[in-house]
Amino acid sequence: MKVVGLAAIVMACAGCSKPAPSASALDDRQAALNAIADRCRMPRSSWKLIDETRVALDVARNTDVAKSTCLLTEFNKSHLPLKLGFIGREYYPDAHP
Fold first, then answer.
1. In what order do the strands lie in the sheet with 54-58?
2. Which of 15, 26, 35, 53 has the fewest Cβ atoms nearer than 10 Å?
3. Distances from the Cα of 33 to the Cαs of 3, 12, 13, 20, 64, in angstroms?
4. Residue 74 near residue 39 (C-beta atoms within 8 A)
5. Cα–Cα distance between 13 and 15 in angstroms, integer?
6. pLDDT at position 32, please?
7. Other C-beta atoms within 10 Å of 48: how many?
8. Are 92 and 63 in contact (CB under 8 A)?
9. How much of the chain exceeds pLDDT 90, in percent?
10. Burial grade of 60 (CB within 10 A; 0-12, 13-18, 19 or more)
């Protein structure tokens, strides 16, 4: 009886840990983000891939609104499995309201 209970616990916990993403999955996501930056004529450094599920968009204060809009539009069209965080102008110490 104890062996069956222990086996059930082991089987249940086997699904608890999420496997780490492969390096190729992260590389694929970064390549997709780079392609978006290239299409919008923005530096690739605009995207900061934080981990396998999160990305931050950090654009310079003086970036043309059309280019920022392009990045966001293309990101949404891509359906990448990433949560997007946006670093706004408030982040910069000399930003004006």
1. 47-49, 54-58, 83-87
2. 15
3. 49, 36, 34, 20, 19
4. yes
5. 5
6. 95
7. 13
8. no
9. 42
10. middle
Tell me the range of 9-13, 18-22, 68-72 where mean pLDDT is highest: 68-72
**Any alpha helices (H) in the chain, and if so which ranges?**
2-14, 23-39, 65-78
Pick the more confident residue, 9 or 61: 61
The two three-digit tokens of residue 31, written as one number: 């390549």
The tokens for 68 are: 């920022």
- The pair of structure tokens assigned to 78 is 């891509």
Nearest to 80 by CA among 41, 40, 36: 36
* pLDDT tens sequence across 35-80: 999 999 999 999 999 888 999 988 887 889 999 999 999 999 999 9
| Residue pair 44/34 in contact by the 8 Å Cβ criterion | yes
